[in-house]
């Protein structure tokens, strides 16, 4: 009578091999995620580091003459924290549901932008998108912090409005001193255009969640100042 041993072995071995391959894939995936997370954590925690972008240029203090304009509002986005320095944050104004690029804010940098006064909605992009509403008056200067926070695969960012009372604190003086002025190069707009599909996707995924929040960040019209901040000393 013929033996049934061979067919049984032929069935069991492939099943065992499949299980081994699946376990190996899971292990490799876990190791990959762990290494990537460790690299992100290391980059995120190096808080004293400054970032840079090939799409922006540094502006010396003497050349950073951002005087107020009677018919325009001026908003300054500052990122004094060095956390997540390896990840760039980009800021936008949302106009009629469309993101309009304002600039890239690296760690330890600040960027100024003149704009039409009125009610605004700003967006910052990292791993995800976050938002801030504002009411801007002409002839005034407004400030917002770009604050990093830990994401899944890279840093996320939020926008924090700076109140009038904040401008009188030593903390704000330190933020201002520790950030350098940067301006857009022509290539910055090209970068934003080429990445717009991803930017729109992040906006679409995160804006409904933000709108559902009870306490949304809002920059009030009376937070504006008549002149650009001048550090003492």
Note down, in words, how this protein is organized.
By secondary structure, the protein is of the alpha/beta class. The chain folds into 2 domains: 1-45; 56-223, Immunoglobulin-like. Helices cover 32% and strands 30% of the residues. The chain has 4 helices and 11 strands, in the order αβββββββββαβααβ. The protein has helices at residues 5-45, 170-177, 186-194, 196-211, and strands at residues 56-59, 73-79, 89-95, 98-105, 109-115, 118-125, 129-136, 141-149, 156-161, 180-184, 218-219. It has a 6-stranded mixed sheet. It is globular, with a radius of gyration of 24 Å. The model is unreliable at 1-12 and 31-47 (pLDDT under 50).
Number of helices: 4
The CATH class assignment of the largest domain is: Mainly Beta
Please name the CATH architecture of the largest domain: Sandwich
Q: End-to-end distance, in Å?
A: 101 Å
Quick one: overall form?
globular
* CATH homologous superfamily assignment of the largest domain: Carboxypeptidase-like, regulatory domain
Structural class: alpha/beta
Q: What number of domains? A: 2
Average pLDDT over all residues: 83
Radius of gyration: 24 Å
Strand order of the largest sheet: 1-10-5-2-8-9
- CATH topology of the largest domain, anyone? Immunoglobulin-like
Number of strands: 11
Strand content: 25-35%
For the biggest sheet, the summary is: 6 strands, mixed
H/E topology pattern: HEEEEEEEEEHEHHE
Helix coverage percent: 25-40%
């Amino acid at each position: 009578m013929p033996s049934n041993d061979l067919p049984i072995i032929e069935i069991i071995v492939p099943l065992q091999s499949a299980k081994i391959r699946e376990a190996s894939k899971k292990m490799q995936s876990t190791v990959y995620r762990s290494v990537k997370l460790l690299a992100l954590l290391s980059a995120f925690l190096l808080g004293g580091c400054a970032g840079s972008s090939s799409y922006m240029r540094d502006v010396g203090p003497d050349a950073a003459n951002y005087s107020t304009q009677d018919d325009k509002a001026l908003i300054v986005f500052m990122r004094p924290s060095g956390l997540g320095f390896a990840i760039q944050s980009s800021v936008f104004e949302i106009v009629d549901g469309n993101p309009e690029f304002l600039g890239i804010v690296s760690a330890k940098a600040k960027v100024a932008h003149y704009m039409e006064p009125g009610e605004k909605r700003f967006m910052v992009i990292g791993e995800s998108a976050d938002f801030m509403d504002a009411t801007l008056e002409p002839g005034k200067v407004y400030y917002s912090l770009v604050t990093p926070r830990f994401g899944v695969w890279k840093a996320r960012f939020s926008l924090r409005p700076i109140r009038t009372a904040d401008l009188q604190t030593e903390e704000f003086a330190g933020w201002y001193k520790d950030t350098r002025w940067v301006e857009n190069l022509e290539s910055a707009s090209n970068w934003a255009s080429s990445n717009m599909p991803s930017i729109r996707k992040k906006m679409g995924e995160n804006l409904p969640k933000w709108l559902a929040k009870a306490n949304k960040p809002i920059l009030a019209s009376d937070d504006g100042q008549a002149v650009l901040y001048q550090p003492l000393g």
